[in-house]
Design a protein that fits this description.
By secondary structure, the chain is α/β, with parallel strands linked by helices. It is about 35% helix and about 15% strand. The radius of gyration is 19 Å and the shape is globular. The protein starts with 6 loop residues before the first strand and ends with a helix.
């Protein structure tokens, strides 16, 4: 495979079959997403925690420096500003928006993203069986659910087909080596039958039954060789998150980048999360505080995700995910939660998005 083929999602053609994973809070906003789209990949803006954008200047109410309630944590005004600034970088190139299904205000945030100018909506963290309901007025917006099994894709296709007379424009299948939340139990993350190499062919087979929906592989993909491997397996493209943190344009704090650069393989661990599924990140001082029962008090100011049940699940696992991810964005080394894919320890340099895309497309040594 001499040249990577383009990736077609709905009405949009992405020059290279590389989607930059949506990473929140504030890891993939205007600078990263705009730069990736400019260089021929699909840049994806994370809708999580937009209330923190530009020092919370777009929100209407905060308590103790935290956006108050979901209406401010998922700020419409900030999302519009992020898209506008990303467009200044990438022009008319396709731009995506990642919106977790588990969030409070999911439907409202999807509509906000469509109105802000998203061409493609990507949704994981649950089965988005009613996703098309919120994009009825935006038929040109492509819809891409994230699944962890062929069964999940089948459920989505049956529901969408029957209820909305449409199918996903593409599907992302994410294996258990990705950063952040997993679509598997802790035990399943280590079982051979749930690894990406095993589930991609199964999802491709299911996708063919519905008219050959493009399948995009995600979770643990790191370099050109990985991309070629999954394309040869039949995937139409790949999604990569963690590797893009190692770019100058990534919106993450310098602290976040340094923590990843210093991380060793054994530092990247699975941890419990208030969302109900395990999450992968870097073992830092915060993890020690949680284990000792000494993490900051849980106040649930932002009311970010439905499964947390207004802070009840946060109390069970010992930390508030909204506050701790936001602290990582703000560069708090002690209290920040630093998500990373399983290969995060391989990050050894900070380069431009342009240079990273060249390495991914052509190979490291070219």
């Amino acid at each position: 495979m001499d040249r990577l083929p383009p990736l077609r999602i709905g009405a949009y053609t992405i020059p290279y079959p590389i989607i930059q994973g949506g990473m929140g809070v504030g890891i993939s906003w205007d600078r990263l997403a705009g730069s990736v789209s400019k260089e021929g990949g699909l840049g994806v803006i994370s809708a999580v925690g937009t209330g923190y954008y530009e020092n919370r200047r777009y929100i209407d109410k905060e308590i103790a420096g935290r956006p108050f309630e979901a209406i401010n944590f998922y700020s419409r005004k900030a999302l519009f500003e992020i898209f506008e600034n990303a467009r200044k970088i990438c022009g008319d190139a396709p731009l995506g928006c990642n919106i977790l299904y588990a969030i409070n205000d999911y439907g409202r945030v999807v509509r906000d993203a469509c109105e802000a100018g998203a061409n493609i909506i990507i949704t994981g963290a649950g089965l988005p069986t009613n996703m098309p309901e919120f994009t009825r007025d935006f038929p040109e917006v492509a819809l891409v659910p994230i699944v962890s099994s062929a069964k999940a894709l089948k459920i989505i296709c049956k529901r969408w087909s029957k209820r909305y007379n449409r199918l996903p424009d593409a599907v992302i299948v994410e294996g258990p080596l990705s950063g952040g939340h997993q679509g598997f139990t802790y035990e399943q993350c280590f079982m051979p039958q749930f690894q990406l190499e095993r589930i991609v062919p199964e999802v491709i087979e299911e996708a063919k039954k519905w008219g050959d929906i493009p399948v995009i592989a995600a979770g643990g993909i790191w370099d050109h060789g990985d991309i070629v491997k999954f394309l040869q397996m039949g995937a139409a493209g790949v999604q990569m998150g963690t590797r893009f943190i190692g770019t100058h344009e990534c919106d993450a704090s310098d602290t976040f980048k340094r923590i990843l650069l210093q991380a060793k393989e054994e530092d990247i661990v699975l941890m419990k999360s208030p969302v109900g599924y395990p999450a992968r990140g870097v073992r830092t001082k915060l993890i020690e505080l949680i284990e000792a029962g000494e993490a900051p008090a849980i106040k649930c100011i932002s009311n970010c995700v439905v499964p947390c049940n207004r802070g009840e699940e946060a109390k069970v696992v010992g930390y508030c995910i909204a506050d701790r991810l936001s602290d990582a964005y703000l560069g708090d080394e002690e209290l920040g939660l630093y998500f990373s894919g399983s290969n995060g320890y391989r990050l050894n340099e900070i380069i431009s998005v342009k240079e990273l895309m060249r390495k991914l497309v052509e190979g490291e040594e070219s």
